[in-house]
Amino acid sequence: MDIFNKMFGKNNVSSKTVAKERLRLVLVHDRANVSPQLLETLKEELIKVISKYTEIDNSALEVSINNSEHSVVLVANIPIRVRRSMNTVC
Amino acid sequence: MGEVIVVTSGKGGVGKTTTTANLGTALATLGYKVVLVDTDIGLRNLDVVMGLENRIVYDIVDVVEGVCKIKQALIKDKRYGSLYLLPAAQTKDKTAINSEQMKQLCGELKKDFDYVLIDCPAGIEQGFKNAIAGADKAIIVATPEVSSVRDADRIIGLLEAAEMDSPKLVINRLRPDMVKRGDMMDIDDMIEILAIDLLGVVPEDETIVISTNRGEPAVTDKNSKAGEAYRNIARRITGENVPLMNLTIENGFFQKLKKLIGLRDS
Ligand SMILES: Nc1ncnc2c1ncn2[C@@H]1O[C@H](COP(=O)(O)OP(=O)(O)OP(=O)(O)O)[C@@H](O)[C@H]1O
Ligand SMILES: [Mg+2]
Hints:
The structure holds two protein chains of two kinds.
Chain A: H1 3-7, H2 15-32, H3 36-51, E1 62-67, E2 72-77, H4 84-87
Chain B: E1 3-8, H1 16-29, E2 34-38, H2 46-49, H3 60-64, H4 70-73, E3 75-76, E4 83-86, H5 99-112, E5 115-119, H6 126-133, E6 137-142, H7 146-161, E7 168-174, H8 176-180, H9 187-194, E8 197-203, H10 206-214, H11 225-237, H12 253-260
Parallel strand pairs in B: 1-5, 1-6, 2-4, 2-5, 6-7, 7-8
Antiparallel strand pairs in B: 3-4
Helix pairs in contact in B: 1-11, 5-6
The complex binds adenosine-5'-triphosphate and magnesium ion.
């Protein structure tokens, strides 16, 4: 381990790493032409629709845009409230 | 038939005009017939960077409006006989020309020139659309900063939509010292994020400011690092395989100190 790097605060995350992470996120939205506001609206609508059919945990619902190798995917993570009675094996 | 190459970036002030002037001059020194077209109507600058501002009679708007012939508006470079400039108009705005007129103009120019380099204005509006209208290829200039890379990405998307094939990246104003201490994105970071081919890397270099002061592009200065980088890029444009310049620095203060007291990077 380089003593100079230690002395001058290299143990913090470097600013270039921060830049890359921020860029990655902002570009995913730019490329898909989906703003964070739009995602929020989508999330609210999803809650409305899905709630008609099953009970979901609104606060834990997550909608995001992800970049995989060659495609951009819309990911919705929707936790469903499950009652204990339904789970028990008879 | 020559080739029309647009130099673009999205973000302003990242080095489009500097790149156009230097690549054009370097291509001319390699013996090619080159014309530089300034499409930044209302904010023309290529003329001053080339040191030709006192020779302008007609401009690009005069040409498309038929006020003069193309040949009458072309300004011959001071140093290189095969290098010409078609200046932008200064008193009009971007809407003084449309994309169709630009296409026609580029079509005419490439009959007479090996390379037609187009200096694109900042932004993604009419000026950008005009600049890319007649282009066969595109060079994207970006600096290693979040806003510049983001805008470059947007431009790449717009070029794709316009069916322009594979633009090439020029990274400008790279500071090896900052890269070394992790405070600037490096070449690999930029290529990874933008996912396009690299054409070259130009370091941050005060000789750019000095040469711009004099109106003599840095490629004419044998001792300029940025000039050397631009000369390499010009050769790559002509199809030559030129390795990337070594930009790593080994003589910073801490390196010297480390050497002195026997502490070296492993
Ligand atoms: N490699 C470099 N090293 C130092 N200074 C540079 C470098 N490249 C460009 N510059 C400086 O940055 C400034 C902006 O450059 P330039 O005018 O070429 O950018 P531009 O993209 O054409 O700007 P605009 O969008 O306004 O047309 C100029 O003052 C120029 O001298
Ligand atoms: Mg410019």
